[in-house]
Amino acid sequence: MTVSERAHELAITAAQAAADKKAQDIVIIDVGDQLAITDAFLLAAAPNERQVLAIVDAIEEALLNLPEKAKPVRREGERGGRWVLLDYVDIVVHVQHTEEREFYALDRLWKDCPTVPFDNRNLARAEAAAGSGE
């Protein structure tokens, strides 16, 4: 795995922020061996433009709240809300409308790259609650 500690911290924090806003199909792809410009891509999808923008806002807020704050050096696609890209140098976040996610299939484009495991804490809590009969 070529993802640096910082990239890992940013990617996991961003992925959890996306999950907290009900993002779908969250994947972290380790592209460090293939690209010199970043260590990882975070991919997430949402069924409508409003939710895409809400996920983007949540990710930005979560990364600003880290002890070593992170701000994107570049943002693209916000106006349309169909595919927003946030470039944090160590990671690049792609939040896409579900249709764009399926059409552009970045997962398939980077299928030869390893993924970084992400355990959604909300899912783990729900499964624990269901198992305990709550």
UniProtKB/TrEMBL annotation:
Can the keyword tRNA processing be found in this entry's annotation?
A: no
Q: Which domain of life is it from?
A: Bacteria
GO cellular component terms, A-Z:
cytoplasm
One Gene Ontology molecular-function label: ribosomal large subunit binding
Q: Which keywords does this chain's UniProt record carry?
A: Cytoplasm, Repressor, Translation regulation
Q: Where in the cell is it found?
A: Cytoplasm
Q: Would the keyword Cytoplasm turn up in this protein's UniProt record? A: yes
Q: Name one Pfam family in it.
A: RsfS
Annotated GO biological processes are:
cytosolic ribosome assembly; negative regulation of ribosome biogenesis; negative regulation of translation
Q: Which NCBIfam families match?
A: rsfS_iojap_ybeB (TIGR00090)
Listed under subunit, the entry gives:
Interacts with ribosomal protein uL14 (rplN).
Q: Which family does the record assign?
A: Belongs to the Iojap/RsfS family.
Q: What does this protein do?
A: Functions as a ribosomal silencing factor. Interacts with ribosomal protein uL14 (rplN), blocking formation of intersubunit bridge B8. Prevents association of the 30S and 50S ribosomal subunits and the formation of functional ribosomes, thus repressing translation.
Q: What's the protein called, per UniProt?
A: Ribosomal silencing factor RsfS
Name of the gene: rsfS
